[in-house]
Design brief:
single chain
C-alpha cells in the first residue's frame, strides 16, 4: 500500500510536470515563430527603405552629372564653387541615410525591463509604465493611463513614452482586446495557483475589452477550483458581483461574473 501510494503520488507529479513542459514548449514555439515574423518584417522594411534611398541617390547623382556636363568653367573659383555644391548634395543624401537609420532604431533601448520603465505591448502596440514585476512568473504589471494590465515580460518592448498618449493607447488597446477576448474562461484541469493567475489576467483583458458579463468554467469536482476562483473574484478591482450558474448555465460548475 505504501509503495502504491508513493507510485500514485509520483505518477501525479509526473503528469503535472509533463503538462507544464508541454505549456512551456508551446510558449517557446510561439516565441520562436514571433521572432521569425518580426525578423522578416524588419528585413522587409529595411529593404524597402534601402531601395528608396538608393533610388533617390541615383536620381541626385544623375542631376549632378548633368549639371557638371552643362557647366562652362572659366576659372578655378568656378570649379571650387561647383565642387562645393556637389559636396552639399552628397551631404544631403548622407543625412537622408542617417535619418532613416535613426527611424529604424528610435525609441528602442536595452531590453532589460525594470519597474518604472515605459514599455510597449508587442501584440497591440499599446504603451504604459511598469509598476511591478513578478520574476517567478516572468510577468509585469503595466499602468496604462487609468487602467492596470498584466503581461508576460517577453510580450513587452522597452521604449520611450511620448507625452499625452495615454488616452489614445487605452482606446487602441480596448479595440484590440474586444476582438480577441472570449466571454468565457475554462479552467478545468488547471492547478490552484495556475487557475488564479490565468483568471487574474483574464479579468484584466475582459475589463479592457469592455465586456460586462463573463462565465468562469471550473467544473464541480471537489470544489477546489471553485474556491480558487471565488478567492480571486472577491477582491478583484474589476469585479462588480459574481454568482454560481443556474441549471441552464452549468450549475455549480460555472461562476457568472459581472464586470465593472
Amino acid at each position: 500500500n505504501t509503495e502504491r501510494k508513493k507510485y500514485n503520488s509520483l505518477k501525479e507529479e509526473f503528469s503535472v510536470k509533463e503538462k507544464e513542459a508541454s505549456t512551456l514548449k508551446e510558449k517557446y514555439d510561439k516565441m520562436v515563430n514571433d521572432l521569425k515574423e518580426e525578423k522578416a518584417r524588419i528585413i522587409k522594411e529595411a529593404r524597402e527603405v534601402a531601395t528608396e534611398i538608393i533610388s533617390t541617390a541615383k536620381k541626385e547623382s544623375k542631376n549632378i552629372l548633368k549639371t557638371l556636363k552643362k557647366a562652362d568653367f572659366k576659372s578655378r573659383s568656378d570649379v571650387d564653387r561647383k565642387g562645393n555644391e556637389v559636396n552639399e548634395d552628397f551631404q544631403t543624401i548622407d543625412e537622408l541615410l542617417n535619418q532613416e537609420e535613426e527611424k529604424q532604431t528610435e525609441n528602442l533601448v536595452d531590453q532589460k525591463i525594470s519597474v518604472g520603465d515605459e514599455v510597449k505591448l508587442k501584440s497591440v502596440g499599446s504603451r504604459g509604465e511598469v509598476v511591478d514585476i513578478d520574476e517567478d512568473k516572468q510577468e509585469a504589471t503595466i499602468q496604462a493611463g487609468i487602467i492596470t494590465v498584466k503581461a508576460q515580460l517577453n510580450e513587452l518592448q522597452k521604449v520611450d513614452m511620448p507625452d499625452d498618449k495615454s488616452k489614445e493607447m487605452v482606446k487602441k488597446y480596448k479595440v484590440s482586446k474586444t476582438a480577441k477576448v472570449s466571454p468565457s474562461l475554462d479552467l478545468r484541469g488547471e492547478r490552484y495557483d495556475t487557475a488564479q493567475r490565468l483568471l487574474d489576467k483574464y479579468l484584466d483583458d475582459v475589463f479592457l475589452a469592455g465586456l460586462k458579463q463573463v462565465e468562469i468554467i471550473h467544473g464541480k469536482g471537489t470544489g477546489v477550483l471553485r474556491e480558487a476562483v471565488q478567492n480571486i473574484l472577491e477582491n478583484h478591482q474589476h469585479v462588480d458581483d459574481f454568482r454560481l450558474g443556474r441549471q441552464a448555465e452549468g450549475g455549480s460548475g460555472v461562476t457568472i461574473v459581472s464586470v465593472k
